[in-house]
TrEMBL record:
InterPro entries in UniProt: Arg_succ_lyase_C (IPR029419), Argininosuccinate_lyase (IPR009049), Fumarase/histidase_N (IPR024083), Fumarate_lyase_fam (IPR000362), Fumarate_lyase_N (IPR022761), L-Aspartase-like (IPR008948)
Protein known as: Argininosuccinate lyase
Localization of this protein: Cytoplasm
Name of the gene this protein is made from: argH
Taxonomic superkingdom: Bacteria
Length: 496
């Protein structure tokens, strides 16, 4: 190892020291280059246009500035390398604009703004893009889930509680539950979008400026929905990051739960779903194995997305209420990775769900086992014979225990045998037709017509309601995406 004198010599005597460059400035520069380059120039354009419209600079100056900005914006990103004379990418690009139009004129671009409000605006623009991409993929997955739900309104399956066979339901009903959770995740993403899509520009360092700028104008040019009015809040508030992180975390936790279910359903023992060939991998040594790698990776990638979003939240914790820009240089990449991985999960599971095959016969067969319709015996006794439910439940429980003890299924009993057991408790005789209904998963599902239940008619109604709502939501999303694209086009093509 180098001794202290050699270390100090290598570090230098002025800012930035070698270690600071290698461990902070270079990594931050590369992150900025990868994520912030394009939005930086959009902010330059909007600010210059506003300065000219407010006569803070002349139109001629603004024209030259915009020409220089647009020319430097065409720089090949891959060619950019950290240079020690520039603190970061922002100062490097400011120097390049100065090379094009002259340092004096380039210096005027920074009138009435700070790295603080500019930095927060860049982060918000990038997060806006990530949120919209995630929403697009979430809507695409929603369509696939709803489509499969429609196809399987009468595909009977075992529903589980406490990991144990509980009651019959349908695959359509189960998938609708997943769909509804995803819609709430989408609602949380939209809430984060609304918080993110607000403009801090004009706050400058934290107290605005003495120049007569128009904050609403830069807000409009960049497609923000509104201005963050309090200028201190503009550069100090970090809840837009917290809300975004929380939305991604919740999405991945919820998605990871049903992905775990899918891994169980695709096992040879369950054989409920068959993953399409493009999304399975054959073992290198055991050729009979169809490894559901698309689902396995989705589960682990979802955990990775959650972890990065949580890291961003943790980095904000106890950060002083002031300029958060420098902190964001370190935490933003965590959020970008979280979004990237979340979108990988959504796209992978869209591919799996859209193409999977369902083993309907096997699922129905399994729904006849494990005494999972026995609740209907208790219900029938209470509903049709006026037996107190707790007493009816104890009779059903006794029959279930005998069934397990004798290694039978409910369909192995005939009505005479069941009536002999019931007779020990109450004076009720079930007909053969009544017993057949009690042991039928189809009847069990059909009779549960209460709002939100698994009855095919009720599932059909729910699907119909959700299809219309989803269509409207997707239209709203597309409208917002088109508006932002048009705003960007107007900004780039703006002529004074």
């Amino acid at each position: 190892m180098n001794n202290l004198e050699e270390f100090i010599k290598e570090e230098g005597t002025v800012f930035p020291g070698k270690t600071y460059v290698e461990e902070l400035l270079k990594p931050v520069f590369n992150d900025q280059k990868d994520y912030l380059f394009h939005v930086m120039f959009d902010i330059h354009r909007a600010h210059v246009i506003m300065l000219a419209e407010k006569s803070i600079i002349s139109e001629e100056e603004a024209k030259v500035m915009l020409e220089g900005i647009n020319k430097v914006a065409e720089t090949d990103i891959d060619s950019l390398r950290y240079q020690p004379q520039f603190e970061d990418l922002f100062f490097m690009m400011e120097a390049k604009i100065g090379d094009e139009i002259g340092d004096e004129l380039a210096g005027k671009i920074h009138i009435a703004r700070s790295r603080n409000d500019m930095g927060v605006a860049m982060y918000r623009l990038v997060l806006r893009e990530h949120l919209l991409t995630t929403l697009r993929n979430a809507y695409q997955l929603s369509e696939a889930i709803l489509d499969q739900s429609k196809k399987h309104k009468e595909t009977y399956m075992t529903g589980y509680t406490h990991t144990q066979p509980a009651q019959p339901t349908t695959l359509g009903h189960y998938l609708l539950a997943i769909y509804d959770v995803l819609q709430r995740d989408i609602k949380r993403l939209w809430s984060a979008y609304e918080t993110v899509n607000q403009s801090p520009l004009g706050a400058a360092a934290l107290t605005t400026t003495g120049f007569p700028i128009c904050r609403d104008r830069t807000c409009d040019l960049l497609g923000f929905d509104r201005v963050i009015e309090n200028s201190y809040d503009s550069i100090g508030g970090a809840d837009y990051l917290l809300e975004t992180s929380t939305a991604v975390m919740t999405l991945m936790v919820n998605t990871g739960r049903w992905i775990q279910d899918f891994l169980q359903h695709v096992t040879r023992e369950f054989s409920s779903f068959l993953v399409a060939d493009p999304y399975v991998q054959i073992s290198s040594i055991m050729p009979q194995k169809r490894n559901p790698v698309s689902i396995e990776h989705s589960r682990s990638i979802a955990s990775s997305a959650y972890g990065d979003a949580l890291a961003a939240m943790n980095m904000i914790h106890n950060t002083p209420f002031g300029d958060i820009v420098d902190t964001e240089d370190d935490l933003q990449p965590h959020l970008y990775r979280a979004f990237n991985n979340a979108n990988r999960v959504l796209k992978l599971m869209y591919a799996v769900i859209s193409t999977m095959k369902v083993n309907k016969e096997h699922m129905t067969k399994m729904a006849r086992k494990s005494s999972i319709t026995i609740t209907e015996l208790a219900d029938t006794l209470a509903r049709d014979f006026d037996i107190p439910f707790r007493k009816a439940h104890s009779i059903a429980s006794h029959i279930s225990k005998i069934t397990v003890k004798e290694k039978k299924e409910l369909y192995n009993w005939d009505s005479k045998e069941i009536n002999q057991i019931i007779k020990e408790y109450i004076d009720v005789v079930l007909t053969e037709e009544e017993w057949k209904k009690i042991i039928s998963p189809e009847y069990f599902v059909e009779i549960r017509k209460i709002q939100g239940g698994p009855s095919p008619d009720e599932v059909t109604r729910m699907i119909s309601d959700r299809e219309e709502l989803l269509l409207n939501k997707v239209k709203e999303y597309e409208k917002i995406s088109i508006r932002l694209n048009e705003k960007h086009k107007e900004l780039v093509e703006y002529r004074l």
